[in-house]
Amino acid sequence: MLPTRGRLWPDRPDWSYPSPVTDGHDEPRLTDRADESRLTDGNESRLTDGDEPRPVDGDEPRPVDGDEPRPVDGDEPRPVDGDESRPTGRVDQPHPTDRVDESRPADEVDEPDPRRRWPLWAAVAVVLAMVGCGVPAALLAGLVDRTADRATVDRPAARTPDPATAAARRMGDQLSAQLARQADALLGGDRRGFLAVADPSARADLGRRFAALRALRVTVWRAEPSGLPTPVAGQAGQWRQLVTFRYCFLVPDCAPSPVLIGTRWRETGGAPLLVAVEESRSAQAGVRPWEVSDLVVAVGPRTMVATTPALRGKLPGLLAEAESAATVADRYAVAGPPPDRYRIFYAGGPEWRRWYGGGRPKWTAGYAVTVGGGHHEVVLNADGLTATATGELLRHELTHAASLPARGYPGKQTWWLVEGLAEYAGADGAPVSRYEGLDEAGQLVAGGWNGRLDALTPADAAPADRVGGSYGVGYLAVRHLVDRYGEQQVLDFFRAVVHDRRSLDDASEQVLGDPWTALHDECVAYVRATVR
């Protein structure tokens, strides 16, 4: 049986693709709990094809090894737009719950309303006029004094910050300086400088992060404190600071991906020291591989492949397959240039259950997840992938990374189109008769499918053959459209529906020149005839 594609998570519509914080992308929300699992963005099933799992042929779902359930995504599928196995997921900007409202500083001084300044000037004018008329000086002095008193009463007094706020601001300034020092050390390859801001108890974890980020060839690393630090309850002299880290790999001028992470610090006689860095568990994607694992990395002209030291021997073959798949996926960048570099992570069993929050359906073999800045990262399941299926799976997942918008696709009604295009790319021009999912598509059609393309999205608990059948029907529908209108016109249709969020009816009329109702029935008739 064909391993199930890493599909886009079916129940994750628009909102399922959280976009990262800045650069116009939404960031995942943090609940500001250290143990928080990722938000699911509403009703997120995993991304459809970026985070859509491919079936692993009978593998039972694995425990997440202590990972706490995700807040909104606990058992719910991930967003359609930022986490695709071949589901995709999205990303909303994180809003830490402990963020202090700094829209106006506590020590800001209100400026008097300009309209309140007229009494004093008016008094002066009156005095000058009265002097000209011979009014006694004593009367003039009394008038000026009373007018000046009124003007003074109208002017608000300057506010001073309360001691707790003032202390938090002083600490925030010190933490910002330490984080900037650490960022410079990371980019400069200075391990000693990177660890110098940390308490000895935190240096082992930070040393591993430093090595992983350097292996990934980090080119941008900016630390942006979010709000003011807050005292840690029951830990005198310790502070917690939420920080948005923005990063790029390999490419120095990329749109950075953001990740919101909690940090804890200890006051000293001099600069504060970092005592702990929490796992991100952000709504956008969850724990990144470089946060929790040792990594080895291979880099090619279009791709970067990373895995753990135990699987180092797989890297040369994976890189060759990835480079070949990238040349195909680049053709499906429908709304701009292809990704600057495709990022691929090859996960062993423990990593599969932990990276990006784990918890994929048991039939998942791979997925793509949005990480902000317009980037998707692809994850392959080492335990659910055969050597012969690697190339097809990579073409499928990298096409998600190239074709999907950062915020994800519109939802279940377009799942067939998103997955069908990725399956079409995965087939790479092979004849329909050689498509491996034909038998599963036939079983679905014969087993009571209602003939609606918008009803194809499989549930997370669906059996592998049901999932494979859904992918197969999506592939055949897209194949029929390509045969009739040509690849470029179908890509324009895809862009109108998935990127521009136009209805299928409008996009069909305006891009393909035919009513969608008739085309839908044509696609279904083609599917039935092909699998008969």
From TrEMBL:
<feature type="transmembrane region" description="Helical">
    <location>
        <begin position="120"/>
        <end position="144"/>
    </location>
</feature>
<keyword id="KW-1133">Transmembrane helix</keyword>
<protein>
    <recommendedName>
        <fullName>Peptidase MA superfamily protein</fullName>
    </recommendedName>
</protein>
<feature type="compositionally biased region" description="Basic and acidic residues">
    <location>
        <begin position="23"/>
        <end position="114"/>
    </location>
</feature>
<feature type="region of interest" description="Disordered">
    <location>
        <begin position="1"/>
        <end position="114"/>
    </location>
</feature>
<keyword id="KW-0812">Transmembrane</keyword>
<keyword id="KW-0472">Membrane</keyword>
